[in-house]
Specification:
The protein is an alpha/beta fold. The chain contains 16 helices and 15 strands.
Length: 407
């Protein structure tokens, strides 16, 4: 086909049913070819763009006249922009460029947050293709402190400095009270299949060993050792043995009471409902204890649990463990083994954790997320969530509220 004239049609105005249908009917009657099309509605205002070309034997004026008349009838604004062939070919040549997804998450989205994200994108020489809202609309009179908002940017181009992008987004997130994730947009990002979680201070808002220690009268000693381990200042295996040794003599019956009162993290139940509905496999990979992991497995419908077994004799904790200690390196290995078992690529895995011993699995996963984590962990993880609950993981995976609002 010989190209004669390429025209960009822009329509704006109050949205109502039938606009797109009536306009495309006119284009169809003139048998034009559509090169690109895009539409969005914010509040009740429509923005529609159609890039089209017509055969050489057709007169563009008759098409434009019909469109103008219809736009007048519909009380909408219409604009025509002729596009040169070399401009169009140059634009087409850009379609092979790298693509990235930037996800902005907060309790509410502010203009400052949007400005900071856009500034980084611009300075890195990237182009924004689309901006879309992942969360539902927020009522003005809603005062719920647990509100959440997320916006996704689809960008294109080759960043000037990927490491600098990450640094800039970390700084912007800290200064604006938001979470900002930067991911390569590829087939793996859209096909995650296995999601693995740390347990203590991730799925639950406590460290179980600290709760056990309180009942054993050694709370302060265990808390101090735990903090040193989570900050990465103490070898996990060494700290683990020291802590459980302090639990010697504790009656096993106390574990049931602790399990039944575990403070589940905000958003965890919603997250697992969605993951289960859409066929994702889930796992707990924890340096904590199997007893509590199994309790959460039943409560949340989790597929796998790997944690540490406490030795119990005559109804009392012995202060020792059974089997291999599940430390950071073992967590990463378990993640890889589960991916192999489920016959999926490692890039299709997600890992979520808060402590230094979670870093190996966070870095091994296709999407590693530091959740309300210590500074050292946030600095070394691929992504982080610190502003809202655990269901924020869904937005990093590309879910929209409208897809899951019936749960």
């Amino acid at each position: 086909m010989h190209l004669n004239e390429i025209i960009l049609l822009n329509i704006t105005g109050t949205d109502h049913p039938g606009i797109t249908s009536l306009l495309t009917d006119i284009l169809a009657s003139h048998k034009v070819d559509v090169l690109d099309v895009g539409q969005s509605v914010i509040h009740d205002q429509l923005s529609l763009g159609i890039l089209f070309v017509h055969p050489k034997e057709k007169e563009a004026s008759s098409i434009l006249k019909d469109l103008l008349l219809k736009a007048y009838e519909l009380d909408i604004n219409i604009k025509f922009t002729p596009i040169q062939r070399d401009e169009y070919e140059s634009w087409v040549a850009q379609q092979g460029k790298e693509r990235y997804i930037i996800t902005l998450i907060a309790r509410k989205i502010t203009s400052v947050q949007l400005a900071r994200v856009s500034e980084v994108i611009f300075k890195q020489g990237l182009n924004i293709d689309t901006i879309s809202r992942l969360t539902g609309r927020v009522h003005l009179n809603k005062s719920d402190a647990k509100t959440k908002a997320s916006v996704e940017f689809s960008v294109r181009g080759t960043p000037k400095n990927k490491a600098l992008i990450r640094e800039c987004f970390i700084k912007a997130a800290q200064e604006t009270g938001a979470d900002i994730a930067f991911q390569e947009d590829n087939i793996f990002r859209r096909n995650r299949r296995l999601v693995c979680f740390d347990m203590d201070s991730t799925l639950i808002q406590t460290e179980v060993i600290v709760e056990l220690a309180k009942l054993a009268g050694v709370g302060e000693e265990v808390h101090e050792i735990t903090e040193q381990a989570m900050q990465g200042h103490l070898d996990f295996n060494e700290s683990f043995k020291k802590r459980i040794a302090l639990l010697k003599g504790l009656d096993e019956s106390v574990m049931k009471g602790i399990a039944e009162n575990l403070p589940i993290t905000e958003g965890a139940e919603r997250l697992f409902q969605v993951l289960k509905k859409y066929g994702y496999k889930t796992a707990i990979l924890s340096g904590g204890f199997t007893y509590f992991g199994e309790y959460l497995k039943r409560k949340l419908g989790i597929d796998y649990v790997f944690a540490n077994n406490l030795e119990i004799k005559d109804g009392k904790l012995t202060g020792r463990h059974i089997g291999e200690i599940v430390n950071g390196e073992i967590k990463a290995e378990l993640l890889k083994k589960l991916a192999f078992k489920e016959d999926i690529h490692l890039e299709q895995t997600v890992a979520v954790g808060d402590g230094a011993n979670d870093l190996p699995m966070l870095n091994a996963a296709g999407l590693g997320i530091a959740f309300h984590a210590k500074p050292k962990v946030k600095e070394n993880a691929k992504q982080s969530i610190s502003t809202i609950g655990l269901d924020a993981v869904l937005y990093l995976m590309g879910f929209r509220d409208r897809e899951i609002e019936d749960l």
